Amino acid sequence: MTLGYGRQWINDDDIAEVVKVLRGDWLTMGPAVDAFEKTLADYAGVKHAVTFSSGTAALHGAMHASGMGAGDFAVTSALTFVATSNSVIYTGATPIFADIDDTFCMDIKKADESIQSHGGRVKAVIPVSFGGYPLDMAGFRELADRYNAVLIEDASHAFGRRKFDADMTTLSFHPVKHITTAEGGAVLTDNDTYARKLRMFRNHGTTRNAAEFVDTPDGPWHSEMQELGYNYRLSEIHSALGLSQMRRLDAFVDRRREIARLYFRELSGVDGLILPPNKEGHLWHLFIVRVDNAELHREFFAHLRDNDIRLQVHYRPVPLQPYYRDKYGYKAGDFPEAERYYRQAVSLPIYPLMTDDDVMRVCGCIKNFAWR
Ligand SMILES: Cc1ncc(COP(=O)(O)O)c(C=O)c1O
Question: Is this structure's pTM higher than 0.85?
Fold first, then answer.
């Protein structure tokens, strides 16, 4: 059987909840969205959770709510999914990048240098808890405060914890993530103004809340479009799935941690293989090993593929993607740590449905590789 690097776990309860919505009155903008948002906010210990149609839309919403636009800079990690920095560009602002440290997350000192080299101006600091690694949020807060910037954590890899310190935190519910709604995302915040902006932004920039009207209402049907927004709403179907998945989030995280422990136990003696940075609180969205001898990287990848283990490499450093290279002039060598990582890294399968036997099969295959 083929093992992918990640996959969803849908059970009969999830299916029953989705079918209930399909038989009901509301397919969008109904009670399941409200219930899902309340459950997310309660779990995360924040005042507001605002759902979006994807993690990318949630990022776009957070960038918009931060007030960034043309002429602004926002700093993020050179090692992330393209959506993190794309969402900055959507607002008209310019993403700038910083190299990673040995946690695979943005190096705070290098982020500071990157801001300095752009005139010391930055509208947002956007760290990414890469693979689920717990960020030094106190350090990032200090950096953001120094430049009077908004702190936005891209926690697409890091749900399943209950402490969120950024001004806004974005989540993704893509099938490989800690919980899934098929497509979906959310922004977590304690800030009422951000929450209001986020809710308007995902619904065409409109509001039906009388307390927010700038005009005298035309009648009970009155709604106002006060700024340019999008249709980024999450449907009732997706929300019902998310709500059902939330019941198992802690179990999903526990199982990911068990799998990580097994990998550490089984692979710690493999010469030529570098195991990932580990820390209390790691959420193990990804289990990333590195091939010490980069010349064996492709061969290692192919060996596992030939054994029906479908790996991934997360990710090619964003500034070196053709679009970013052409638009902003980045070139090979600008982010040496992220580039070195990219030449060696492989994400092994890790998801709650994996059995111990599956993990042992992956480990056996890694041990069988012609290390030299
Ligand atoms: C770090 C990171 N940010 C943002 C996203 C975008 O999320 P989505 O796929 O839900 O739009 C992803 C998803 O893959 C991600 O890994």
Answer: yes
